[in-house]
Fold each of these.
Amino acid sequence: MLNSKDLYPSRTAERVPMIPRLDPVIHTDHDRRWSGPLSEEELARFDRDGYLLFEGFFGPDEVAEFREELRRLEADDGLRDWEGVIREPESDEVRSVFQIHKPRISARLARLARDPRLLERARQLLASDVYIHQSRINYKPGFKGKGFNWHSDFETWHTEDGMPRMRAVSCSIILTDNHEFNGPLMLIPGSHRYFVPCVGLTPEDNYKTSLKVQQAGVPDEESIAALSRERGIEAATGPAGSLLMFECNTLHGSNANMSPDPRSNVFFVYNSVRNVPTAPYAASKHRPAFLAEREDFTPLTPAND
Ligand code: 6CS
Ligand code: FE
């Protein structure tokens, strides 16, 4: 299957300068925005910064219920040897569990992925029906949770999963207090407005190492320095129950967790049904289904239970 023209070339042998993004941040459908719960002010901030942080978005009872589910999945022997459970590079601690939006993995988190409070915001930003491209829990356990190098999620989803355009948004639900010492997610405001091609071809079966320590798809330091000089670096700190929505191309990363407190977040990646993956743009084959949905693009309907 050949790809249409690659508008966002990356994973090249030689360095290619960054380019302005070619996609809108707030999408439209036949030139019309979709209505939804985000205010004009919130839309303007998402358009400008590439993310929105809502403190106290979920109540304490919901947070307790989700955390119980995180503990259950972390201890589930049935998942122990599944390749969708990623362990920390320097310990046996669980780093991530993927595909948690699938009912067979977690009925409760599958319902959360369809929570209208998330779904309607994602549909509003993407101006279309949506489905889950990827979901995961990043546990970042105390002392043992290592960081994530600077990257654009879209750069990986484009080169390795075949996501054509920047029409996806991540919802990160903060389930343990994210503070300055336990490796909160850091973002470069405004970085979503540029596509930073990354040097270095995609290795075969890259995902077998990239989910522990990402090498391919990490932008060069000069580009990161230039973008962070424009608007600085912000840490998405907030109490358990907060929600971070970030655009698929916003540069982000995080430090290792040096504190005893875990930094556990659930992530749902909402992709537009108008943006389903084609062939990878810079990899020899698709990544496994636990990392990127490739078959069922049925639009999500709200779970009102
Ligand atoms: O490769 C991926 O799809 C994952 N890697 C990172 C560092 N963030 C996005 C996603 O979970
Ligand atoms: Fe990421």
Amino acid sequence: MTSFYLAGKRVWVAGHRGMAGSAIARRLARENCEMVTATRSELDLLRQAHVDAWMADRKIDVVFLAAATVGGIMANATRPAEFLYDNLTIESNIIHAAWQTGVKKLLFLGSSCIFPRLAEQPMREEALLTGALEPTNESYAIAKIAGIKLCQAFRRQYGCDFVSVMPTNLYGPGDRYDAEGGHVVAALIMKIHAAKAAASPTVELWGTGKPRREFLYSEDLADACVFVMKNYSEEMFLNVGTGVDMTILELAQRIAAIIGWTGTFTFETSKPDGMPRKVMDVSRLRNMGWVAPTSFETGMKEAYDWYVANVPGPYAMTT
Ligand code: GFB
């Protein structure tokens, strides 16, 4: 196992305002490094020249590449141009500039949607590019696959120490609480919280409730990213997750229990299910010594408390 030290290094978290990036920024506070961030008005990640100049000026040693255009199943399905163009451009600009400016190490964050729609479950890293992608998130998946390939190509051709991780579905503080465009956990927290406040007996789920998903707490992802940055330097990307999945209906029932709402769920079957099952084989990372430390109930309670404290809404209330 290789060892890379963050202490004394200048570390840029690209995307520090998002759920994954903000968790990495919080986690880095425990490392003895100098963290650098840039707001959207300071640095336009869609402009190669801006990224080149900014990175050269800041003399960045290490990059956590968490900047991306993200969203749930409907955002992916209805805004494919943004998901493809933005993500391809952001990752290309940063990876190219990292090479040009002599960055010592870069970690790229992808997504479990890179795997084929009907990949064997749990999905091993080797399943990449063995079948057709899930149509609802094909644009995002293609962009993230390109990110993996960029890291591998820059490693092969120029010897850059660029590595990639593929996180499973995430939840946590700073998630996008947007009922239409967000991911399922954020949407369900919003809907169930509102149903409780309004004493409403039903909540609508999209699709059939039968797809199976795996959920990782964003703070655990951040811990894994720091672990991989310090201990891994190979071409193959690493899956990051819990290795445990549940149906969407079970997810909704477990969130309802945490929120304290006891109604019933209905199904809006005109909305897509997406991939029938998506659970990671996490044995590579486990064999290196990392497992997700936070239980679903603990992480989800923290995510819900963050929502109540930080997202004002028509049904804002304290728990
Ligand atoms: O998290 P999610 O939007 O995306 O949806 P994916 C997961 C599942 O939850 C789907 C169902 O089967 C949805 O039909 N679902 C039920 C809901 N109710 C709701 C709801 O109110 N809102 C939402 N959003 N879903 C994402 C990709 O796929 O996976 C992303 O679209 C990313 O790009 C992420 O790759 C990891 O899990 O289907």
